[in-house]
Amino acid sequence: MDAEKPEFDFGRVPKAIVYSGYLKLMNKKPTAALVYTLYISHTNDEMKAWPSIARLVELSGCSRSAVSDARRFLLAERFLVFTGEHRGRSPVMRVET
To answer: Are 90 and 51 a contacting pair, CB within 8 Å?
Structure first.
């Protein structure tokens, strides 16, 4: 029996790539681009996401410090905006596209 694949909204990712500055980010900061992509893949309908650092490390294959540095960069450059909310211990971020 095959596991059911999660539904994916292909319309969301191309807009994010084109309008967010993602292509320039990919060239300058590849780890940040990877973490940004993971945040996009975790968004709900309000473009909010709260993956833990551990989850981002697991999915990216990057070190904890590299993922943390990438998230700080994404916050500083406003690719991610902290909403002031938390889900468990994870901060809820609004993904800017």
So the answer is: yes
